[in-house]
Amino acid sequence: MSGESPPPQPANSTRTIAIGTIARVEGEGALRVTVKQGRVQDVELKIFEPPRFFEAFLQGRHYEEVLDIVARICGICPVAYQMSAVHAIERIFGLCVEGTLRDLRRLLYCGEWIESHALHLYLLQAPDFLGYESGIAMAKDHPAAVTRGLRIKKAGNALMTLLGGRSVHPVSVRVGGFSRVPSRRELEGLKDELLWARDAAIDTLRWVASFAYPDFSPDYTFVALHHDDEYPLNEGRIVSSDGLDSPVDEFERHFEEQQVPHSNALHCLLNGSPYLVGPLARVNLNCDWLPPAVREVLTGVGLSLPLRNLFQGIVARSVEILYALEEALRLIDLYEPPPVSSLPVSVRAGVGMACTEAPRGILYHRYRIDENGVIREAKIVPPTSQNQGRIEQDLRLWIPQVLDRPDQEISLSCEKVIRCYDPCISCATHFLKLDLQRDP
Amino acid sequence: MQETAPDQIVPSEPGVSHRPSGWSNIRIIGVGNEWRGDDAVGLLVARRLRERMGKGVQIIEARQAGINLLDLMGGARVVLLIDGVSSGQTPGTIHRLDVSTGPIVQNLACRSTHGVGVLETIELGRTLGRLPETVIIYGIEVAETGWGRSLSPPVEEAEEQVVERIARDVEQLQCMNSI
């Protein structure tokens, strides 16, 4: 990218770079960067999308209403909200959903990962690597790639539609199981397209592996779920690359949400420090659970885990598309309709927590329910609020590398860093205006 | 609340399959959010046309139109799409845009995934060679898009007019092309 250097400024002036609205992310946010005497003084990721008060809406509601309400927090990852909520509530009621019903929930989650990852990878982030301002502009020169991405996404949508009743804000998940389970024939009807998508996911991984990645590998603390038997979706312990290994119940012992004046979203810190959640953290902390076929493709493109470069998050995302398709096909092959679609529920009072792996990273829910099944307290910690502190930290490290460029170029490069996180501002308050103050 | 989802087709009547059973030559797609005042107008026009249209015309109510709008248009020869628009003109103004012949917006940048709106999706469809032969958009200038289920008077009036105009369009198309 070419551009003129910023004009010389007096020795003690302030340079402000402002990104007005961050493009190609979910929701509305802005970035303000202050530079004094050539050094980055302050970075504030401002989330000005208004607070959404979901935790308060849930108070006084019956537990049966929770899954429909939390699904509305996000149209891209409603399954994640439903899954964290349903597991937390089932925990309170002493319910353990196992076997085929558990598999079906995993399959539904695979659909959401495929859909969400394909959308972000092909239409939101790939243009950054190939030098286009949007997915539409990229489609002019790369129609086959974009068509491939849309078809992969559609395969994920089809899974969600079949299992969830519809592809957005699904309606079939309920406490104890599902309101309806599919027939074997219905699931098998999806197989051909999923098989096509699996091959397309291999092509995707090869494609993104050919991109040029800026060199940017800060010393990250990666945080993800880890399960003893499988790649994590709905269950696991919370682990970090710094040695944390905690049951989900103890999330609030280690992680603390803090209010910051410049943002409507809370910042969540791990023992006082920022950390990274999402595909990059997941593949690095769960590489043992990736099937050999997935690891072979990764080796074939000359990459190995762990991936430490932030920009290789797109590789991690494509690894997970491939994984989710492999897993979906495995679960469909195993499927025999369960004798009941849902287990009987006995309401009891208590507190329950759950954490599941949303496409963008761990999503924590805690509920307190009374003896009548009414929600008395709810707490929701979405992945984007967890990544927010880490995004600011990354920008503090990134901006000095690009500070000699014109403001517009700095803005664009900051947006690229932010997009690596696939932030969902809607979920976190729920994007980006850059305001860069330079004081050379 | 942000509806970040790409799109969704919703049945107008409970129990009616919301997935079109087969593709038809003429498809009417109403886009909107019925909980946000005038933004519902696209859905309402589609719903009213459902009562009037005969076989061969398919009606879809799309509550969240995004990238998947391409799939909703797939297989049709003619698509008539109705949506609320906001361009600063008088509320109730009806824009009729034939987007088959060329782009109407030159500088389209995807602002976000919510922002992958109707026009951006149509341009993506054009780029990928996935647009039906004819795509006509009826855009109705909105006044109020806050919470609520009622249309403002000028938009309600425009709703009536658009229903009539589309009914005439369909009649002409069927006569002209015997489709």
Could you give a short description of this structure?
The complex is a heterodimer of chains A (440) and B (179). Chain A has helices at residues 54-58, 63-71, 78-93, 99-130, 135-141, 143-164, 184-188, 191-209, 251-254, 279-285, 292-300, 313-334, 383-402, 407-419, 425-428, and strands at residues 14-19, 30-36, 39-46, 173-174, 177-178, 223-226, 237-240, 245-246, 255-258, 267-270, 350-358, 361-369, 375-381, 434-439.
SSE string of chain A, helix = H, strand = E? EEEHHHHHHEEHHEEEHEEHHHEEEHHHE
What is the CATH C level class of chain B, in words?
Answer: Alpha Beta
**Order of strands in the sheet with most strands of chain B:** 1-3-2-4-6-5
Q: Oligomer, anyone?
A: heterodimer
Radius of gyration of chain B: 15 Å
The helical percent of chain A reads 40-55%
Shape of chain A: globular
Pair with the most extensive interface?
A-B, 41 and 30 residues
Here the CATH topology of the largest domain in chain A equals Cytochrome-c3 Hydrogenase, chain B
Terminal residue distance of chain A = 23 Å
Total strands of chain B: the figure is 6
Structural notes for this entry:
The complex is a heterodimer of chains A (440) and B (179). Chain A is of the alpha+beta class. Chain A has two domains: 14-51 and 400-439, no CATH class; 61-220 and 254-384, Cytochrome-c3 Hydrogenase, chain B. Chain A has helices at 54-58, 63-71, 78-93, 99-130, 135-141, 143-164, 184-188, 191-209, 251-254, 279-285, 292-300, 313-334, 383-402, 407-419, 425-428, and strands at 14-19, 30-36, 39-46, 173-174, 177-178, 223-226, 237-240, 245-246, 255-258, 267-270, 350-358, 361-369, 375-381, 434-439. In chain A, the strands form five sheets. In chain A, strands 1, 2 and 14 form a three-stranded mixed beta sheet that branches. A three-stranded antiparallel beta sheet of chain A has the order 6-7-8. Chain A has a three-stranded antiparallel beta sheet with strand order 11-12-13. In chain A, helix 4 (99-130) packs across helix 5 (135-141). The longest helix of chain A is centred in the first third of the chain and has 32 residues, at 99-130. Chain A is globular. The two termini of chain A are 23 Å apart. Residues 1-7 and 426-433 of chain A have low confidence and may be disordered. By secondary structure, chain B is of the alpha/beta class. Chain B has one domain (8-177): Rossmann fold. Chain B has helices at 41-52, 69-73, 118-127, 153-177, and strands spanning 8-9, 26-31, 57-64, 78-85, 94-98, 134-141. A six-stranded mixed beta sheet of chain B has the order 1-3-2-4-6-5. In chain B, helix 1 (41-52) links the parallel strand 2 and strand 3. Chain B is globular. The interface between A and B is large, with 41 and 30 residues.
